[in-house]
Amino acid sequence: MNISKIYEELLLLIDKNRMVLDAPMKEYTSFKAGGTADLLIIPKDRDELMKALDVVSRSGVEHLIMGNGSNLLVKDGGYRGVIIRMGEGFQDVTTEGSRITAGAGALLSTVAREACNASLAGFEFASGIPGTVGGGAYMNAGAYDGEMSMIIESAEVLSKDGSRIFRLSKDELELSYRHSIFQRTGDVLLNACFLLKEGDQEKISDRIKELTARRTEKQPLSYPSAGSFFKRPPNHFAGKLIQDAGLRGLSLGGAQVSELHSGFLINRGGATASDIVNLMEVIRSTVFENSGVLLEPEVRIVGEDLKR
Question: Catalytic positions, please?
Fold first, then answer.
């Protein structure tokens, strides 16, 4: 089944205003670079999501799930398949006692704010991570000595083919450094339940303000990026390894190693996905030559190179 047939079948199930053919993924990702996806679907609720996954899985066409695109780069040649974006229909956040349940599309910053309003501590570390609950769980996102595995209690999950909804406990989520079971199975997180601790609202708010100030001071927030580009190597910090290799401020096309934080690759203006990927490879080879450490990207890079 080709993309046009998938699109025609989905038109009977999903409003065409929530489907985009040849979707320019630079408009849906924080790097503001990259090629098109054959088809982008933004289901309004879990029913449409299940229908979309059923059609796509039966077609055999490649597909992936995304949140707000803060950790995704689509190569300039585009993505030959279907991308499903968890949008407004998956942003509900509810609080019950010490537990917060948040939809996959809810921003981590929104959940952190709701936790603060409910005087619940433990989510502060995620307040500045520019991702969603789904993406955060997928990558076991972390910052400032905290990570999702420390607070997540369980997750409601939809099977990759859209046929079955089930719940996984924290232990079943296989959470480790920047890893979860979703990377192995392709199943889709619908929502996550977080178990937090009762705390003092003023102290929680102050901690969020402190982390926001540190982030603003030390990270290049005025340029498009995907946050920390590389995973943290054991016993090292990627940014320091890059700086020690003399690569701070290095540019390639419109992509640059941030002068403010060497762990960030930024789009200085007009960067292509190829610029970013090529800069990544220069960094990896140079750092390896300099330190013997091979950096691994934290950013999810998908799609094809541009054919010449």
Answer: 178, 228, 298
Fold of 90-203: 3.30.465
pTM of the prediction? Answer: 0.93
- 147's CB contacts (< 8 A; 6+ apart) are 125, 140, 141, 175, 177
**Residue range 249-271, pLDDT digits in tens:** 999 999 999 999 999 999 999 99
Phi-psi group of 34: left, alpha or beta (phi > 0 → left; psi -120 to 50 → alpha; rest → beta):
left
Instruction: State which H helix or E strand residue 255 sits in.
Output: strand 255-257
Structure confidence by residue, pLDDT tens digits, 10-28: 999 999 999 999 999 999 9
Query: Per the structure block, which two tokens stand in for 99?
Result: 């537990």
CATH 3.30.465.10 segments of the chain: 90-203
Cβ atoms of residues 86 and 109 within 8 Å: no
The DSSP symbol for 186 reads -
Plot region of 60 (φ>0 → left; ψ -120 to 50 → alpha; else → beta) = left
Question: Which CATH number among 3.40.50.980, 3.40.50.720, 3.40.605.10, 3.90.78.10 corresponds to the domain 220-302?
Answer: 3.90.78.10
Beta strands per DSSP E along 15-116: 19-24, 36-41, 63-66, 72-74, 79-85, 93-96, 99-103
